[in-house]
Amino acid sequence: xxxxKLAILGFGQxxxxxxxxxxxYPEEMELxxxxxxxxxxxxxxxxxxxxxxxxxxxxxxxxxxxxxxxDILVISTMDQDHYDQAMAALDLGYxxxxxxxIAAEIDHCIQIRDKANELGRKVAVCHVLRYTPFxxxxxxxxxxxxxxxxxxxxxxxxxxYYHYAHSYVRGNWRRAETSAPMILAKAxxxxxxIRWLIGEQCEALSSFGNLSYFKQENAPAGSADYCYKxxxxxxxxxxxxxxxxxxxxxxxxxDPDVDKVLRNEAxxxxxxxxxxxxxxxxxxVVNMLFAAGATASLTVxxxxxxxxxSIKIHGTKGEIEGDLEKMEIIVKRYGGEIEIIDVKxxxxxxxxxxxxxxxxxxxxxxxxxxxxxxxxxxxxxxSIESHRMAFAAEASRRDRxxxxxx
Length: 406
Description:
The protein has 406 residues and is of the alpha/beta class. The protein is built from 15 helices and 15 strands.
């Protein structure tokens, strides 16, 4: 069996996840090189993953000067960086595992797709929800006709109040112009799942949403600019959060002293959530019309206690409801028995996006090793559709819900 060599470009939370999956399959894959711009992380990465000095880079351009040094390049950098890095990597001959979103502009997404097709390269976009046992089971039920034809579908992404504060108020995705709109950066996953389950082209959509809460005028009386200066009781207290979520804290620093790091006012993660420079929506709805008449809605909200996704599908012969984190699917056939499916009984590994991360990486590696076309679940030619929908949704939101035809 040929062992596939992977290089990881960008070692944040997602890069860390990919490295751990590679480590789990030593007979099939190996980590050949790492490029990470943050120098603080270098000792940790080199020691934990046995990366040699000559295989470690801090600038992707220096790594690319070496030519193609691995079979697969994982691009898990910031959204705005994807276009330049993916286009250059395709020219070097890489097949790519590309984090979503494909790029921060629709024209760039299309150019990456077109270049991959022109050069015969394989690009898988990390729409990992398609690989989860949860959504695969729902897809099986729908395709088997158990609930008839889908008439309406509604999905809600409950981001979680603390996740939203970390990523979209204080974090790297807080400003659309330096990352991507929230509906693209966070919810192209959900748009992709909706499009996949319905199995038709989205013909038109509209969207409403805005930044309503995480603004200066909502700051509690007596609160301070930074959490370490503040005495107001608040669920968004950064010091308390990062003390209890060390794995999130390592994304921007490996220093174990949370209080000390957050006292550095150059670090945005200690900033009051009401006094940040964020500008992306904190809640948004998207309404969609599909080719054969089915309608769908997506709600994305910062305002939830837990991080989870829930779905409800109404068909002509029955309905499906489920919750990804509860790992439960309920099928109700009209006039028939109610079936409750325990998703935990369908697989043994639910790590990383309900088991989707591992299955996606392994599928891509095995198909490339065997010289076959990838399964198509997250091929860029499929994933481009959800990106068109996300960009259209953001345009509609900015135009007060204008209907946009696709």
